[in-house]
Amino acid sequence: xxxxxxxxxxxxxxxxxxxxxxxxxxxxxxxxxxxxxxxxxxxxxxxxxxxxxxxxxxxxxxxxxxxxxxxxxxxxxxxxxxxxxxxxxxxxxxxxxxxxxxxxxxxxxxxxxxxxxxxxxxxxxxxxxxxxxxxxxxxxxxxxxxxxxxxxxxxxxxxxxxxxxxxxxxxxxxxxxxxxxxxxxxxxxxxxxxxxxxxxxxxxxxxxxxxxxxxxxxxxxxxxxxxxxxxxxxxxxxxxxxxxxxxxxxxxxxxxxxxxxxxxxxxxxxxxxxxxxxxxxxxxxxxxxxxxxxxxxxxxxxxxxxxxxxxxxxxxxxxxxxxxxxxxxxxxxxxxxxxxxxxxxxxxxxxxxxxxxxxxxxxxxxxxxxxxxxxxxxxxxxxxxxxxxxxxxxxxxxxxxxxxxxxxxxxxxxxxxxxxxxxxxxxxxxxxxxxxxxxxxxxxxxxxxxxxxxxxxxxxxxxxxxxxxxxxxxxxxxxxxxxxxxxxxx
Length: 490
Ligand SMILES: [Zn+2]
Ligand SMILES: [Zn+2]
Ligand SMILES: [Zn+2]
Fold this sequence. Notes:
By secondary structure, the chain is an alpha+beta fold. It folds into 3 domains: 65-290, Cation efflux protein transmembrane domain (Alpha-lytic protease prodomain-like); 297-377, Alpha-Beta Plaits (2-Layer Sandwich); 383-470 and 481-490, Cation efflux protein, cytoplasmic domain (Alpha-Beta Plaits, 2-Layer Sandwich), CATH 3.30.70. It has 13 helices and 9 strands. Bound molecules: zinc ion (3 copies).
């Protein structure tokens, strides 16, 4: 069977098809009720009581709450470190510890920015931001990445500085450390110094800070990997940058005490490289998110498989995605049976959306474009290529009306369905007839009518007259006057 019109509601239909060029195929009888129940099952499953269906569902891996907690934990730790260091520095009078406290204050600001941009990204879409606020997360991540780059630069600069000092004089390292620490405690500048006047206090504060910060790195990194959030990864690396720069400070002191001066700049260069790499990675990804770079194929392939699994989907193409923070925005063309009704095709689209959001929680929104699948059309004779347009459709409808009212008064015109596929036009004409008409007669009449319509407009590729036996399909919001009335008028 070449193709079937499947729009009618539960009715046996006699369908007769005439192909341009005179080839008449046998009329066929089939039960379309099966198709109908199939579609209504789909629609009932997802559209029950869902008259104003929403197309966007926001899912997040951690429901946002756990992730929010991770940011708050980082902020709280920075506050605790700042207060603890400030108190310890004030009580002991150690300027190095006070300077370290100042660094922790700048960490509070940065953790605050991270938490703020994370929350801003989760504000529901509004009139000003109809696509949501996900890019706030990318922006915050870019900011933190820039800070990481500055930190890496600062540590590298310090290492070069020490190397220069070593070149000039290899004996003055302890002095250097003592002098240097008094101008090195800016946040994005040099590593944290150790106050040698209060060695126990300074050392315990530094070690405590390293442990807390490295712990925060692991907690934030793990959450960031789960959430797919560049912001969390960047923030994790900020925690680690603080930890490793303190380690560099310790190594600097140790190397001075042990008399191995090159250890300090060496550690500085290694750590600077580490932070530089992380900062560039996070910064690059955030920038790509901001520039709407497409997500890589390994992320799209499983989504494509999910789409193709949905019942009624014959194919899909132009699947593309872009990230905004931890949310993924998709659009895709799906191919469906070209003779489905608009509502049935829409149901398939909704099923696709539902399945994607069920199995790929990072997907915030999917835009689905429905294409008629053209793979089934290869057996239809090609005719003139037409560009379907409304004006032409009106001409054809008028032609059909005049042919039927003048030459086939026994057939009462009920509905004309217009199919336009790859420039070919197929017309499906639904008629009703008096109950005492013989089916053989009706078929003869339909054959003639189809030929008349085909010869009447050379742009048509195929015409099929179909007899309605059961109930009429309700016509919602029809602007045109009832076809029966129009026929009676003429
Ligand atoms: Zn910091
Ligand atoms: Zn397409
Ligand atoms: Zn819809």
